[in-house]
Amino acid sequence: MEGTAVRGRLTWQTGTVSSVITETADTRTIVFDVPDWAGPGGIKQRAGQHLDVRLTAEDGYSAERSYSIASAPGEPLAITVQRLDDGEVSPYLTEELRAGDQLEVRGPIGGYFVWDGESDPLLLVAGGSGVVPLRCILRHRDRLGVSTPAELIYSVRTGPDVIYRDELGHYRGVELIYTLTREHPPGWTGLTGRVDAAMLGKYAWPAAQDPIAYVCGPTPFVEAVAEALVSLGYPPARVKTERFGATGDVNG
Amino acid sequence: MADTRDEVALDGNAIGGLLHEVFGREMTTAVGICGSCGASRQVAEFVVYLDCPGTVARCRDCTAVLMVITRQQDLNCVDLMGLASLTAQG
User: Fold this and answer.
1) ipTM of the prediction
2) Which SS3 state, helix, strand or coil, does residue A205 take?
3) pTM of the entire structure?
4) Which secondary-structure segment (H or E) carries A202?
5) A62-115, pLDDT tens digit by residue?
6) Secondary structure (DSSP) of B3-72
7) Interface with A, mutate which of B6, B13, B22 (most A CBs under 10 A)
């Protein structure tokens, strides 16, 4: 099935894992080398896109999954994967995969949930591992050197679930707001509770500043946040959404 | 994105790869008009269920079935009967 990349064609390519980085107890970033990725024959990568991974067992059974791209355009390709205990693919990617292993990928995919360096104030709202494409957007913003005002509202169950914690703290000009939904540890100075209209009304860019919002997380999280933003005056077309099916649990 | 593929409603972003394979181009920004209620939305906004079996996209406004894609051997069978139109952008 693998073929030479034809311009604009989406073809399965073989990637070789160059490193596996432990992000949290159940989350790994997998960096891999794909010779034709975004090359002359490939599709240009944009921040916020995803790719498909295909695993094929020895008996020929294969499974495909989509993962958001964690790396900015121009960087070595990376995805960040959260292990789901009842998952078919993520336990292998997070537990078994080692540097030097190969896997089939195709991409980059998507033209809707993308950010190309525009100057409108950026509101990024993440539930759990929904932070991955938003991290890609922040890395892209940083590499472009643009001064687009940005804020990230990041909802996680507990403090140790925060992915990319050190990195997120280093971006200049990015307001970072964490909210914990399952605990309120002593000394915690961030927010607690779900992202709702009251929280967004207090912390998100006012609609009058013509912001653009990117919301990514589990389906109920995304729908609650998008609805709240529209209730605050964000035009629906300025609220870009991407839903994960990983968990039905609101606020990831 | 999804790993367990049960009955969780996703959105059209999740089938960007499949649609690119079928149409030969980026389709999540294509605009579809629902044949039932007339709502006009980008494919990325459709409600999508994987492995129903097959992939089913529904209208976010009226829940009518817009697209059904099933794979038999290596062939994709594409049913767009619920769409009044589907127009690729750019």
Assistant:
1) 0.92
2) coil
3) 0.93
4) helix A197-203
5) 889 999 999 999 999 999 999 988 888 999 999 999 999 999 999 999 999 999
6) SS-SS--EEGGGGHHHHHHHHSS--TT-EEEETTT--EEEGGGSEEES-SSSEEEE-TTT--EEEEEEEE
7) B13
